[in-house]
Amino acid sequence: MYKDKLVMVPGPTMVPEGALLAGSRQVMHHRSPEYGKLFAEVNANLQYVFQTKAPVLTFPAAGTGGLEAAIVNLFSPGDKVLSASVGVFGDRFAAIAACYGLEVVKIPTVWGTAVDPAVIRDYLQKEPQFKAVLVTHNETSTGVVNDLAAIGRVLKQFNVLYIVDAVSSLGGMDLQTDAWGIDVVITASQKALMSPPGLTFISVSERAWQAVAQAKLPRYYWDFAATRKALEKNPPQNPYTPAVTLLAALNEALRMIKAEGLANTFARHRRLANGFRQGVEALGLTLYAAAGSRSDTVTAVTLPEGIKGEQLVKIMSEKYNVAVAGGQESLKGKMIRVGHMGYINEYDIITAITALEYGLNDLGYTVKLGQGVQAAQLAMQD
Ligand code: PLP
Fold it and tell me: Is the pLDDT of residue 1 over 90?
C-alpha cells in the first residue's frame, strides 16, 4: 500500500511533519549557542506541559529508563515503597524497584479498574515506614486512568513521595504536577508528546531533591544532581551528548501543543476518546476499563468469543492499513488496544473504526458497516 499506515498503537505514535522535518536537519553541536537556545525552549515548554515550576530533566532513553532513573536517584536499598499497580506497566515499575533491593508492597487491585485512593490511605495509616507511593497515571495495558488529583489529596496527609509514571498520559490528559502535589513525574517522547521515541523526561520536586541527596543507590549516567547542574548553566546544557535531533523534533512538537493550548489539547483527546468508545460500543463490543476510569489516550477493547486478538491486529494492519496493538501478558489474544493520542483527529478515529468493522466482518463477527462509524461521528460532532 503506497499510503502511510495509520499508526494507532498506544505508542510510538505518529509524528507531525513539522517535527519530523526539524529532526532531519543537520546535527548541531551540543555545546553551541544555537543548541543552548533550543534546549532552553524545550525546557520551558516541558515545564508547561508538566504543569510544574520544578526542573524537568531529559535523558536519551525509553520511558523504562526514566522509571529506573527515578528509582536509583530517590532510594536506598531496603527502602519501603507502596505500589498501586493496576496492570502491566505498574508491575514493571514495581519490578524495577524490587530489582534494586527496595521492599515493594503491592496493593491487590483488579485489572480494568482504577486504584481506590482510600485503600492507599489505609496502607499508609497502618504502616508509617513507606517512603513513596508508585502510581501509573494511565495504565496502557488496560486503558484505565487513575485519579491522580484524589490520590494527591490523600498523600498530602502523609510524608511520602508521590511518584507517577505518566508515560502514556502526559500531554494528552490533565496532569497538574504542582497543584496535585506530585513529587516525580516520568514520561517519554513517543506518545502524547508527538515525538519520535528515544527521550525520557522527569520532573523532580523540592522534596524529591531532598530524597535524592539522601539516596544511596549507585548511579552515574542517571544521576539527577549532575543533570540538574548542567541544566542550570546559561544556556542550559546536558552532562553527556544529548540526542540533538530528537530534541529538535520534540521542540517543534511542544510548540504545536503550546499553540493549541493544553486545555484544548485535553478537550480534543476527550472528544476523540469518547468518539472511539461510542463507535466500539455501537458494534456490540465491550470496553475493558470500568466506566468512570476510562483513559482518553488508550482504549482497550475486549474481543467477542472466537475472535483472536492477534488475527484482528494482523488483518487491520495488513489489509486495512491501520496499526493497533494486542493485549499484553495475561490479556494476550483477548483484546485490542488502540492509542488515540498526540497527533490525531476525528478522521483518524473514523478510519480506525472503519478498519475495525471490516476486520471483524472478515473474521466472521458480523457488524453492520458504518454503524460504529456513525456513532463515533455523532459523538465527536460539536
Ligand atoms: N509506562 C507506561 C504507562 C507505558 O505505557 C510504557 C510504554 O508503553 C512504559 C512505561 C514504558 O515505556 P518505554 O517503552 O518507552 O520504555
Answer: no
